[in-house]
Specification:
The complex is a heterotrimer of chains A (about 120), B (about 600) and C (about 160). With about 120 residues, chain A is α+β, with helices and mostly antiparallel strands. Chain A has four helices and five strands; from the N terminus they run αβααβββαβ. Chain A starts with 6 loop residues before the first helix and ends with a strand. In chain B, α6 packs antiparallel against α7 and α17 runs antiparallel to α18. In chain B, α10 links the parallel β6 and β7. With about 600 residues, chain B is of the alpha/beta class. Chain B has a five-stranded mixed β-sheet with strand order 10-9-13-11-12. Chain B has a four-stranded mixed β-sheet with strand order 2-1-3-4, with helices on one face. The chains are: A alpha+beta (about 120), B alpha/beta (about 600), C alpha+beta (about 160). At the B-C interface, β9, β13 and α16 of B face α2, α4 and α5 of C.
């Protein structure tokens, strides 16, 4: 990361970051965002994350980006996983244990069907 | 200063301007003049509301409604519906994709996220994502366009008050540090969030650390500080890690350290961890801890702005206070002041915990009522039980019963009611809570955390605790309540720091609002909520019990006797009231009396 | 005199390395004690003497700091330290029953270490994850939404 020496530099970095984001959603790539704040971890988010990564490895699906985020706010619904497929709206799932995670990966990410019984409406 | 009842912020970003934002503003002002509303509704220009492809758009406060896709023809209808009749003009509201069940009310409908805007949205370990969300633009604006005085003025005009609990006007605090002639000056962020039930700061630190870092750099520029500390409690290891990563990345990008953004302003930051002492959240104790001493508070004056850490002028603010600063600079102080009440401006984060359906973190405009927070945002009481009380402000706050549900959440209103805003922890209690037990519980906490330096707190809280313990054990005496009243008043008046001054609040407020419960414990040796162990018995109901022996086999102290197929019996002398028998009984044959 | 600690390095070496990392000044005292406590499991008297000598502060002051803070221990602790949150938000959602279960399972009460040196049970103040209460921490692992029935399973994960 090159140091930012002026306001113009900062604007340029911002443009590049926004562009990266546009490319990600335009590519039809799926994004899986796991809440890894302390409340998420206390509710078992690490096991959920592991299950998701294992699923990707075993099933061999490509074009899936797994990232983490902090606390989303509905702490008692943790572990929380958010799915963005292409440029469709973000879907937020709650109480995602490893088993539910595998269902979401299979039904939503692979087959494009939202897993209704675990969706949280924000 | 004119008081407007409504503020309209119209987006004038390039995209919205292209679509006719200025025509909208003109039409709006004409219509407001025609209807005689021009002195009540203020129209402001703003940027980046967010729905660029749906412009022209506007936000209307205090409701927080987002109107989009506006045409000049829509304006008369909008003014008549919303500003005259007070109804939201639904057909002009920005469409949000609803997926499945439209009847489920979104718990976040009443929230306005300022401090929490990035939490759960960006990757906290990647500074570029923060920059994509306009991160560090506020800092750039300050360093290139504002003098330090102007930054202080903006913060003062916004009405921002310290979010750590005391609610001292932030702009004024910065001005005092700025005026101090001694150098070097220090900046400290109080991230020692120790209030039970408060975890708002943790969320911001773990999910959006740069909002705090940027706020601190701006503050350092404003007051002339060269070095800063973030004092973070050791119980938040993930927050410490995220902060350290953020600081490192900011340094690499030239946003922290020498010659920030190529100017001659230099400032650096480090994280200091606490070691498990609640009292170190008190600012003078915190500074002592940074100096390597016991976390014991000292009297003020001198205030930190004159003589703080290492004897030099210091500005200390809470995590949330700093996190608000970049937005105030970017969107302008009028925007911030358009939310909230007259004396309590802006939004505040709260942590809803206890017996409420949607526990978690929320951010709402100040002035919202307790009822709205608990029932609209919080979804009401778990299992739809009855509401008994809510404790606001942490362990130094008071408990408020149902009569106060329509109280607005405002610094002055809460203090007048016998509680306080505090850091924002809200503990909701249902009808099965014993208020005497709760008072005892909070007193155990403060007693444990008392640093021991001054007599009123060290000895006084212990005496109060002893009395409460006796009452909960069924040994309450005539005269105990009067003694508690006296002790509370004396300790509040004579303690050295905020911990001692506030420690009696839970007791005093429960004595005021729930005195009958105390009296039942003392005079009738009865706990109405069936909680205090010494005053309850577990009984097996004859006629319901089938004699299956499950309870007897699970009792850890063998207090249950009975033959197969015969009603069993619990010996109250041996029973320790652990409740396991009631959990394992399949026939609901056990009740508490 | 050898002291049994969590580290297999002698106390002298551990303390010297920590002081070198932080710098031998008074305001680094708490970070130094925090790290030594982490590495050794607690703060043996020998370590306190060494710190006092290196940063040139009287032992009494070092001891007064070491005994003030909850997370620093001057007594040996078990191999696994269980911290249970006993603050109000965890209490009102069933914390008391979980604590009872912990005490029953371990045969210990707050502040005690088991005879075989495996467990130390301590109660702490609010850990800041109230929405997933009741909460307990074993070493550095945090468990939320704990019910009394889960306690034996959680404890069984540690050897």
């Amino acid at each position: 990361m090159a140091p930012i020496k002026s306001l113009d530099d900062l604007k340029r970095v911002r443009e590049e970051a926004l562009e990266k984001r546009r490319v990600k959603s335009a590519s039809g790539q799926a994004q899986v965002i796991v809440g890894m704040g302390t409340c998420g971890i206390a509710a078992g988010a690490r096991d959920t994350m592991k299950a998701i990564l294992e699923y990707i490895e075993q099933s061999g699906i490509t074009g899936v980006l797994v990232t983490q985020t902090g606390c989303i706010g509905l702490c008692e619904k943790e572990p929380i996983v958010q799915i963005v497929v292409g440029d469709q709206p973000k879907i937020t799932y709650g109480k995602v244990n490893p088993e539910v995670a595998r269902r979401i990966m299979h039904e939503h990410v692979e087959d494009g069907k939202i897993v209704d019984d675990h969706v949280i409406h924000l | 200063m004119k008081y407007y009842r409504t503020h309209v912020l119209v987006c004038v970003d390039p995209e919205c301007l292209k679509r006719g934002a200025h025509d909208i503003i003109d039409a709006l002002q004409d219509e407001l003049v025609a209807e005689g509303l021009i002195d009540e509704v203020q129209v402001l220009e703003t940027s980046r509301i967010g729905g660029c492809s749906e412009g022209p758009e506007m936000m209307v406060y205090p409701e927080g409604v987002h109107y989009a896709n506006l045409t000049v023809d829509d304006i008369p209808y909008l003014v008549e519906e919303h500003f005259l009749k007070g109804r939201i003009a639904q057909k002009l509201v920005m469409p949000i994709e609803k997926t499945v069940d439209e009847e489920l009310s979104a718990p976040t409908a009443k929230e306005i996220r300022v401090v929490l805007r990035n939490c759960g949205v960006i990757d906290p370990e990647n500074i570029e994502e923060y920059i994509a969300e306009e991160g560090y633009m506020a800092l750039a604006k300050c360093l290139t366009e504002y003098t330090p005085e102007q930054v202080v003025n903006d913060v003062q005009a916004s009405g921002l008050r310290g979010r750590g609990g005391a609610g001292f006007p932030t702009g004024k605090k910065w001005q005092l540090a700025r005026n101090s002639p001694t150098t070097p000056k220090y900046l400290i962020c109080n991230a020692d969030e120790g209030d039970p039930g408060a975890f708002m700061n943790r969320r911001v630190l773990e999910s959006d650390p740069h909002s705090v870092i940027e706020g601190m750099i701006i503050a350092a520029y404003a007051i002339g500080a060269s070095r800063g500390f973030i004092y973070c409690r050791a119980e938040y290891p993930i927050a410490v890690r995220t902060l350290n990563i953020g600081i490192r990345q900011a340094r690499e990008m030239g946003l922290l350290g020498k010659n920030i953004l190529g100017t001659d302003f230099s400032f650096d930051l480090e994280v200091r961890m606490g070691a498990g002492a609640f009292v170190c959240g008190e600012e003078t104790a915190l500074m002592a801890s940074i100096e390597g001493k016991r976390g014991e508070p000292r009297p003020r004056p001198p205030f930190p702005a004159q003589r703080g850490v290492f004897g030099k002028p210091t500005n200390i603010n809470n995590v949330e206070t700093y996190a608000n600063v970049p937005q105030i600079i970017l969107r302008g102080p009028e925007w911030y002041a358009s939310m909230g009440t007259e004396k309590s401006k802006g939004t505040k984060t709260f942590a809803l915990a206890g017996d409420v359906k949607h526990s978690g973190l929320i951010e709402v405009p100040l002035g919202i009522t307790l009822r709205e927070v608990i029932f609209d945002v919080g979804g009401g009481i778990k299992e739809d039980k009855g509401f008994k009380a809510i404790q606001t402000g942490g362990p130094m706050g008071g408990c408020l019963p149902a009569e106060y549900l329509d109280l607005p959440m405002d610094y002055e209103a809460l203090t007048a009611a016998g509680s306080m805003m505090g850091s924002g922890g809200l503990v909701v209690m249902d009808e099965e809570t014993c208020m005497v037990d709760i008072a005892r519980f909070f007193m155990e906490f403060t007693q444990d955390e008392s640093c021991g330096k001054c007599v009123p707190c060290r000895v006084g809280t212990r005496r109060i605790l002893e009395i409460l313990q006796r009452i909960c054990n069924g040994e309450g005496r005539e005269g105990d309540l009067e003694l508690l009243d006296d002790l509370c008043a004396e300790i509040s008046a004579t303690s050295l720091c905020g911990l001692g001054q506030g420690a009696p609040n839970p007791v005093a407020s429960t004595l005021k609002h729930f005195r009958a419960e105390y009296e039942a414990h003392i005079k009738e040796k009865r706990c109405p909520a069936k909680v205090c162990k010494a005053l309850i018995r577990y009984d097996i109901l004859e006629g319901v019990c089938t004699g299956c022996t499950v309870c007897a086999r699970n009792c850890p102290v063998n207090a249950i006797t009975g033959e197969r197929r015969q009603t069993h019996y619990i010996d109250p002398e041996i029973c320790i009231r652990c409740g396991i028998c009631m959990q394992v009984c399949n026939f609901n044959a056990i009740e508490i009396n | 005199m050898t002291v049994v600690t969590r580290s297999n390095q002698p106390v002298v070496d551990v303390v010297r390395q920590v002081i070198e990392r932080h710098g031998a000044t008074k305001d680094e005292l708490i970070p130094i004690l925090n790290e030594v406590n982490q590495l050794l499991g607690y703060l043996p008297t020998e370590a306190l003497h060494l710190v006092a000598a290196e940063i040139k502060v009287p032992l009494s002051q070092i001891f007064s700091v070491a005994s003030f803070y909850n997370m620093l221990s001057t007594k040996p602790r078990g191999r696994h330290v269980i911290q249970f949150c006993e603050s109000a938000p965890c209490h009102v959602v069933g914390g008391r029953k979980v604590f009872q279960a912990l005490q029953n399972e371990l045969g210990l009460t707050s502040g005690e270490t088991s005879e075989d040196g495996k467990w130390t049970l301590v109660t702490t103040s609010c850990l800041g994850v109230c929405a997933v209460g009741p909460v307990l921490i074993v070493d550095n692992d945090i468990f939320g939404n704990v019910t009394p029935a889960q306690v034996p399973d959680i404890l069984a994960r540690y050897h």
